[in-house]
């Protein structure tokens, strides 16, 4: 946990330990980035308003070489801040004050969805886009594409239903394992995937939007 408020950091760490987690915390992004290099955590919780490097930049730096699940916990509930954090590479976003039971449920869901199970076909091909679920790999034109765990699950879910429109709520349930939630999670992750798998992300041809319905991956 990267949180500069000592009271919040300590109280959440104790609450998470009561839930059965092994948890540790630091007050700055610099310390958090260093700790993740030397002793990686399974999941990282990040506040946005940090001294020195802020939470947005912390997420961006961590994402450069690490697909660890990242959850933002912040008092900032403005749509711009939420979208900016997700676009930086966060997997989820919770607004303070946080209910520990909800946080624990989100963390359990994150850990369950590390990689999706392999479908009968070991390689899913969409033109020059290849997805190898059992290896956790995505290739475009034979070149590996770096994606986060959540992006990978989202892509696999769409690839397993080629040409079928999946609603945002369906994707929230199947990828994030949430019975309800903020649909912006889906929209931002779709946008990030398009930047990686489309020739022109502003005019997508593979991962397309069906207005009023949802998204589909087409060959």
Q: What would you note in describing this structure?
A:
- This protein has 219 residues and is α/β, with parallel strands linked by helices.
- It has two domains: 6-112, Response regulator (Rossmann fold, 3-Layer(aba) Sandwich), CATH 3.40.50; 124-217, Winged helix-like DNA-binding domain superfamily/Winged helix DNA-binding domain (Arc Repressor Mutant, subunit A).
- Helix content is 41%, strand content 15%.
- The chain is built from eight helices and nine strands.
- The longest helix has 14 residues, at 184-197.
- The protein is globular, with a radius of gyration of 18 Å.
Helices and strands in order, then pairings?
Blueprint: H1 6-18, H2 29-38, E1 44-46, H3 55-63, E2 70-74, H4 79-88, E3 92-95, H5 100-112, E4 124-126, E5 129-132, E6 137-140, E7 143-144, H6 149-159, H7 168-176, H8 184-197, E8 207-210, E9 214-217
Parallel strand pairs: 1-2, 2-3
Antiparallel strand pairs: 4-5, 5-6, 6-7, 8-9
Helix pairs in contact: 2-3, 6-7, 6-8
